[in-house]
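Researcher: Good morning. I'm working through a list of sequences from a screen, and I'd like to move beyond sequence-only analysis. For each chain I'm collecting a predicted structure so we can compare shapes side by side. This is the next one on the list. No need for commentary yet; just the structure.
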Amino acid sequence: MIRLMVADDHRIMREGLKQLFALVKDFCVVAEAENGAQVLDLLRHTEIDILLLDMTMPGSSGEDLIGRIHAHYPKLPILILSMHNEAHIAQRALRAGASGYMTKDHDPETLLAAIRKVGGGGRYLDPELAEQIALQSSGLSPESPSQALSAREFQILRMLAQGLSVNQIAEQLVISNKTVSTHKTRLMEKMCFTTSTDLVRYALSQGLV
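Model: Good morning. Structure tokens for this chain:
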């Protein structure tokens, strides 16, 4: 029996996944979460075999959440199921410790196959994203400007684009306001943004929010 935790901030998505897994005799959803804090809390007292994780949720999410989970549970397979189909986001997730990454536009059979693969100790990368990465590596496809950002800068870019203030970001990430402001200044310079509107416009165009 494969014990899963489904983590997604959309209830309809969680319910749909649970209905799908109920049709598979060796799959069992033993926990569900709608934000990063719930994921971390449930992992402390719930035995699971695979974590099916959305890339963007309220509070801690994305690379930060993946990294924290991987640091405490290095053997736990994490399969990212995300709306984001940008290669650099998938690369960041995998570098943070995810075992696999796929987008939400695939059919159920592909998802089940990906879960079985990572559950068996393998890795899975959405074929379209793998192609994007291969093209970028060969120089045939341009890289995203945000790839110049550090993991923390990229995380703060997304949080700023979501409308969070410096103080709110500092509170969620448990870092000082000054540190957040420094990261914001650096990412604005690297991305050649002159206003917060530029930042939000870019994030929307890239599907980061």
